[in-house]
Protein backbone atom coordinates (compact mmCIF):
# COMPACT_ATOMS: atom_id res chain seq x y z
CA UNK A 1 0.00 0.00 0.00
CA UNK A 2 2.57 2.53 1.06
CA UNK A 3 4.63 2.21 -2.11
CA UNK A 4 1.54 3.22 -4.06
CA UNK A 5 1.12 6.21 -1.76
CA UNK A 6 4.69 7.19 -2.51
CA UNK A 7 3.93 7.23 -6.21
CA UNK A 8 0.72 9.13 -5.63
CA UNK A 9 2.55 11.79 -3.64
CA UNK A 10 4.97 12.09 -6.55
CA UNK A 11 1.86 12.92 -8.61
CA UNK A 12 1.73 9.72 -10.62
CA UNK A 13 -1.69 9.54 -12.22
CA UNK A 14 -3.69 6.75 -10.66
CA UNK A 15 -5.96 6.38 -13.66
CA UNK A 16 -3.07 5.17 -15.79
CA UNK A 17 -2.35 2.41 -13.28
CA UNK A 18 -5.78 1.00 -12.67
CA UNK A 19 -8.04 -1.02 -14.90
CA UNK A 20 -11.80 -1.22 -15.16
CA UNK A 21 -12.61 2.42 -15.89
CA UNK A 22 -16.34 3.11 -15.69
CA UNK A 23 -18.75 5.74 -16.91
CA UNK A 24 -20.60 7.85 -14.37
CA UNK A 25 -23.49 8.77 -16.60
CA UNK A 26 -26.97 7.75 -15.53
CA UNK A 27 -30.18 7.50 -17.51
CA UNK A 28 -33.72 7.66 -16.14
CA UNK A 29 -35.21 4.35 -15.11
CA UNK A 30 -38.66 2.88 -15.34
CA UNK A 31 -38.98 1.70 -11.77
CA UNK A 32 -40.51 -1.68 -12.50
CA UNK A 33 -38.60 -3.74 -9.95
CA UNK A 34 -36.86 -3.52 -6.59
CA UNK A 35 -35.03 -0.21 -6.09
CA UNK A 36 -32.48 1.14 -3.62
CA UNK A 37 -32.86 3.68 -0.83
CA UNK A 38 -31.75 3.98 2.78
CA UNK A 39 -28.30 3.71 4.33
CA UNK A 40 -25.26 1.60 3.56
CA UNK A 41 -22.90 0.84 6.44
CA UNK A 42 -19.31 -0.32 5.98
CA UNK A 43 -17.70 -1.66 9.14
CA UNK A 44 -14.01 -0.84 9.59
CA UNK A 45 -12.41 -3.68 11.55
CA UNK A 46 -9.16 -2.26 12.88
CA UNK A 47 -7.40 -5.57 13.45
CA UNK A 48 -8.33 -7.10 10.10
CA UNK A 49 -7.30 -4.03 8.12
CA UNK A 50 -4.03 -3.74 10.06
CA UNK A 51 -2.99 -7.28 9.21
CA UNK A 52 -4.23 -7.64 5.62
CA UNK A 53 -0.52 -7.93 4.77
CA UNK A 54 0.68 -9.76 7.91
CA UNK A 55 4.27 -10.23 6.78
CA UNK A 56 6.60 -9.96 3.83
CA UNK A 57 7.30 -12.70 1.33
CA UNK A 58 11.00 -12.37 0.61
CA UNK A 59 11.63 -14.80 2.22
CA UNK A 60 8.31 -15.86 3.74
CA UNK A 61 7.53 -15.12 6.46
CA UNK A 62 9.67 -12.04 6.92
CA UNK A 63 9.36 -8.58 8.40
CA UNK A 64 7.97 -5.73 6.29
CA UNK A 65 10.14 -2.78 5.33
CA UNK A 66 9.34 0.79 6.38
CA UNK A 67 9.89 3.40 3.68
CA UNK A 68 10.18 7.16 3.52
CA UNK A 69 7.94 9.42 1.45
CA UNK A 70 9.89 8.52 -1.70
CA UNK A 71 9.57 4.75 -1.25
CA UNK A 72 13.17 4.36 -0.08
CA UNK A 73 13.72 1.85 2.69
CA UNK A 74 14.56 3.43 6.02
CA UNK A 75 16.35 0.32 7.23
CA UNK A 76 13.68 -0.51 9.81
CA UNK A 77 11.46 -3.58 9.48
CA UNK A 78 8.59 -5.10 11.44
CA UNK A 79 5.64 -7.44 11.19
CA UNK A 80 2.17 -5.97 10.65
CA UNK A 81 0.01 -5.98 13.77
CA UNK A 82 -2.92 -4.13 15.26
CA UNK A 83 -0.79 -1.79 17.30
CA UNK A 84 0.49 1.75 16.81
CA UNK A 85 3.40 1.82 14.40
CA UNK A 86 2.68 -1.60 12.88
CA UNK A 87 -0.63 -1.24 11.02
CA UNK A 88 -0.24 -2.09 7.33
CA UNK A 89 -3.51 -0.32 6.53
CA UNK A 90 -5.90 1.76 8.61
CA UNK A 91 -8.95 3.97 8.20
CA UNK A 92 -7.65 7.39 9.20
CA UNK A 93 -10.67 9.57 8.38
CA UNK A 94 -13.95 9.72 6.46
CA UNK A 95 -15.92 12.34 4.54
CA UNK A 96 -19.67 12.54 4.04
CA UNK A 97 -21.81 13.35 1.01
CA UNK A 98 -21.39 17.11 1.33
CA UNK A 99 -17.67 17.02 0.40
CA UNK A 100 -17.03 17.76 -3.28
CA UNK A 101 -13.23 17.84 -3.55
CA UNK A 102 -10.11 16.39 -1.96
CA UNK A 103 -7.36 18.92 -2.77
CA UNK A 104 -3.77 17.78 -2.87
CA UNK A 105 -1.75 18.01 -0.70
CA UNK A 106 -3.90 19.49 2.09
CA UNK A 107 -6.52 16.73 2.08
CA UNK A 108 -4.02 13.92 1.59
CA UNK A 109 -0.90 14.38 3.69
CA UNK A 110 -1.01 14.32 7.48
CA UNK A 111 1.46 14.75 10.29
CA UNK A 112 2.97 11.49 11.47
CA UNK A 113 1.67 12.12 14.99
CA UNK A 114 -1.88 12.17 13.55
CA UNK A 115 -1.39 8.95 11.58
CA UNK A 116 -3.64 6.84 13.81
CA UNK A 117 -6.93 4.98 13.23
CA UNK A 118 -10.17 6.90 13.24
CA UNK A 119 -11.27 5.06 16.39
CA UNK A 120 -9.78 3.60 19.54
CA UNK A 121 -12.45 0.90 19.47
CA UNK A 122 -12.13 -2.44 17.68
CA UNK A 123 -14.57 -1.40 14.94
CA UNK A 124 -16.03 1.75 13.42
CA UNK A 125 -19.18 1.97 11.30
CA UNK A 126 -19.15 4.27 8.28
CA UNK A 127 -22.79 5.10 7.53
CA UNK A 128 -23.45 6.35 3.99
CA UNK A 129 -26.85 7.48 2.66
CA UNK A 130 -27.97 6.19 -0.71
CA UNK A 131 -28.11 8.87 -3.40
CA UNK A 132 -31.34 9.73 -5.18
CA UNK A 133 -32.52 8.69 -8.62
CA UNK A 134 -32.45 11.02 -11.66
CA UNK A 135 -30.22 13.59 -9.91
CA UNK A 136 -28.27 13.83 -6.66
CA UNK A 137 -30.17 14.44 -3.46
CA UNK A 138 -30.39 17.97 -2.11
CA UNK A 139 -27.29 19.08 -0.20
CA UNK A 140 -24.92 16.58 -1.79
CA UNK A 141 -21.58 17.67 -3.21
CA UNK A 142 -20.67 17.35 -6.85
CA UNK A 143 -19.44 14.20 -8.57
CA UNK A 144 -21.44 11.62 -6.64
CA UNK A 145 -23.01 8.73 -8.52
CA UNK A 146 -26.74 9.02 -9.10
CA UNK A 147 -28.64 5.83 -8.23
CA UNK A 148 -29.99 3.94 -11.26
CA UNK A 149 -30.40 0.38 -9.92
CA UNK A 150 -33.64 -1.44 -10.72
CA UNK A 151 -33.78 -5.22 -10.26
CA UNK A 152 -35.94 -5.62 -13.37
CA UNK A 153 -35.00 -2.91 -15.85
CA UNK A 154 -31.43 -2.13 -14.74
CA UNK A 155 -30.00 -4.83 -12.44
CA UNK A 156 -26.46 -3.68 -13.22
CA UNK A 157 -27.25 -0.07 -12.38
CA UNK A 158 -25.48 2.12 -9.86
CA UNK A 159 -26.26 2.68 -6.19
CA UNK A 160 -24.58 5.94 -5.25
CA UNK A 161 -23.25 6.20 -1.69
CA UNK A 162 -22.54 9.37 0.27
CA UNK A 163 -19.17 8.55 1.77
CA UNK A 164 -15.39 8.55 1.26
CA UNK A 165 -12.60 6.72 3.09
CA UNK A 166 -9.16 8.15 3.90
CA UNK A 167 -6.71 5.27 4.20
CA UNK A 168 -3.19 5.30 5.60
CA UNK A 169 -0.33 2.99 6.65
CA UNK A 170 2.22 2.93 9.45
CA UNK A 171 4.80 1.56 7.03
CA UNK A 172 4.81 4.74 4.94
CA UNK A 173 6.55 7.79 6.36
CA UNK A 174 5.78 10.58 6.79
CA UNK A 175 2.02 10.24 6.73
CA UNK A 176 1.03 9.64 3.12
CA UNK A 177 -2.64 8.73 2.62
CA UNK A 178 -5.05 7.88 -0.19
CA UNK A 179 -8.75 8.69 -0.54
CA UNK A 180 -11.19 6.09 -1.79
CA UNK A 181 -13.85 8.62 -2.58
CA UNK A 182 -17.49 9.10 -3.50
CA UNK A 183 -18.17 5.40 -3.12
CA UNK A 184 -20.79 3.52 -5.11
CA UNK A 185 -22.17 0.00 -5.25
CA UNK A 186 -22.71 -1.97 -8.45
CA UNK A 187 -23.51 -5.57 -9.37
CA UNK A 188 -21.68 -7.36 -12.15
CA UNK A 189 -24.64 -9.09 -13.75
CA UNK A 190 -22.41 -11.55 -15.61
CA UNK A 191 -21.02 -12.98 -12.36
CA UNK A 192 -23.55 -11.87 -9.75
CA UNK A 193 -20.78 -10.21 -7.73
CA UNK A 194 -21.38 -6.89 -5.96
CA UNK A 195 -18.49 -4.38 -5.99
CA UNK A 196 -17.81 -1.22 -4.01
CA UNK A 197 -16.33 1.40 -6.32
CA UNK A 198 -13.94 4.25 -5.56
CA UNK A 199 -15.30 6.83 -8.00
CA UNK A 200 -12.42 9.27 -7.48
CA UNK A 201 -10.29 6.79 -9.39
CA UNK A 202 -13.01 4.94 -11.34
CA UNK A 203 -11.95 1.66 -9.78
CA UNK A 204 -13.28 -1.25 -7.75
CA UNK A 205 -11.97 -1.31 -4.20
CA UNK A 206 -13.88 -4.05 -2.33
CA UNK A 207 -15.79 -7.18 -3.31
CA UNK A 208 -18.87 -8.21 -1.33
CA UNK A 209 -18.86 -11.85 -0.19
CA UNK A 210 -21.22 -14.03 1.85
CA UNK A 211 -24.02 -11.89 0.47
CA UNK A 212 -27.61 -12.20 1.60
CA UNK A 213 -29.75 -10.19 -0.82
CA UNK A 214 -33.43 -9.79 0.07
CA UNK A 215 -36.36 -7.48 -0.54
CA UNK A 216 -37.89 -5.28 2.13
CA UNK A 217 -41.16 -3.42 1.68
CA UNK A 218 -40.89 0.22 2.77
CA UNK A 219 -44.07 2.31 2.64
CA UNK A 220 -45.54 -0.13 0.15
CA UNK A 221 -42.52 -0.14 -2.17
CA UNK A 222 -40.10 -3.05 -2.59
CA UNK A 223 -36.51 -2.05 -1.75
CA UNK A 224 -33.16 -3.84 -1.88
CA UNK A 225 -31.73 -5.14 1.40
CA UNK A 226 -28.13 -6.47 1.55
CA UNK A 227 -26.14 -8.07 4.36
CA UNK A 228 -22.57 -9.11 3.49
CA UNK A 229 -18.88 -9.19 4.28
CA UNK A 230 -16.24 -7.50 2.15
CA UNK A 231 -12.69 -8.21 1.03
CA UNK A 232 -10.27 -6.85 -1.56
CA UNK A 233 -10.71 -9.88 -3.80
CA UNK A 234 -9.73 -9.30 -7.41
CA UNK A 235 -10.66 -5.63 -7.23
CA UNK A 236 -8.64 -2.98 -9.08
CA UNK A 237 -7.23 -1.66 -5.82
CA UNK A 238 -6.58 -5.10 -4.37
CA UNK A 239 -4.62 -6.36 -7.35
CA UNK A 240 -2.84 -3.01 -7.71
CA UNK A 241 -1.68 -2.96 -4.09
CA UNK A 242 -0.71 -6.60 -4.34
CA UNK A 243 1.59 -5.77 -7.25
CA UNK A 244 3.74 -3.90 -4.71
CA UNK A 245 3.89 -6.88 -2.38
CA UNK A 246 5.45 -9.59 -4.49
CA UNK A 247 8.41 -11.78 -3.62
CA UNK A 248 11.74 -10.27 -4.56
CA UNK A 249 10.73 -6.62 -4.22
CA UNK A 250 13.14 -4.29 -2.48
CA UNK A 251 12.03 -3.02 -0.07
CA UNK A 252 9.54 -5.80 0.59
CA UNK A 253 6.25 -4.11 1.38
CA UNK A 254 4.11 -6.98 2.60
CA UNK A 255 2.23 -9.99 1.28
CA UNK A 256 -1.46 -9.06 0.94
CA UNK A 257 -4.21 -11.58 1.64
CA UNK A 258 -6.75 -10.60 -1.03
CA UNK A 259 -9.31 -13.09 0.30
CA UNK A 260 -9.20 -11.93 3.90
CA UNK A 261 -12.59 -10.66 5.10
CA UNK A 262 -12.04 -7.08 6.30
CA UNK A 263 -15.43 -6.32 7.84
CA UNK A 264 -19.17 -6.26 7.20
CA UNK A 265 -21.31 -4.28 4.79
CA UNK A 266 -25.05 -3.69 4.91
CA UNK A 267 -27.60 -1.81 2.83
CA UNK A 268 -30.71 -1.25 4.92
CA UNK A 269 -33.57 0.52 3.11
CA UNK A 270 -35.84 1.24 6.08
> Could you tell me how far the N terminus lies from the C terminus, measured between alpha carbons in angstroms?
36 Å
Helix-strand pattern: HEHEEEEEEEEEEEHE
Total domains, how many? 1
Can you give the mean pLDDT? 85
Which residues sit in consecutive blocks of at least 5 with pLDDT less than 50?
A: 2-29
* Radius of gyration, in angstroms, nearest whole number: 19 Å
Give the helix/strand class. Answer: mainly beta
Tally of individual helices:
3
Number of β-strand runs: 13
SS strand fraction: 25-35%
Across the major sheet, the strand order is 5-1-13-12-11-10-9-6
Q: What is the helical fraction, as a range of percent? A: under 10%
* 3D shape: globular
For the sheet with most strands, the description reads: 8 strands, antiparallel
Give structural attributes:
mainly beta, 13 strands, 8-stranded antiparallel sheet, 3-stranded antiparallel sheet
Describe this structure in words.
By secondary structure, the chain is mainly beta. It has one domain. Helix content is 7%, strand content 33%. It contains 3 helices and 13 strands. The strands form 3 sheets. The chain has an 8-stranded antiparallel β-sheet with strand order 5-1-13-12-11-10-9-6. It has a 3-stranded antiparallel β-sheet with strand order 4-7-8. A hairpin with an 8-residue loop joins strand 7 (163-168) and strand 8 (177-180). The two termini are 36 Å apart.
Amino acid sequence: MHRFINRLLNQTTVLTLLSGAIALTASPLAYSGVTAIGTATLQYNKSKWATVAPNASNPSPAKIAYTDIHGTATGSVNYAANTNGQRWMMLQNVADQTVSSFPYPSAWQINVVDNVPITSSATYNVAMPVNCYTSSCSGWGTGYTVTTYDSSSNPGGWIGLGGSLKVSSDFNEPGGTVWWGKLALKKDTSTGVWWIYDQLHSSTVFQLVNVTETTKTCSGVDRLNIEADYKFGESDWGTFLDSYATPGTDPNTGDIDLDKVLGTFTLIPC
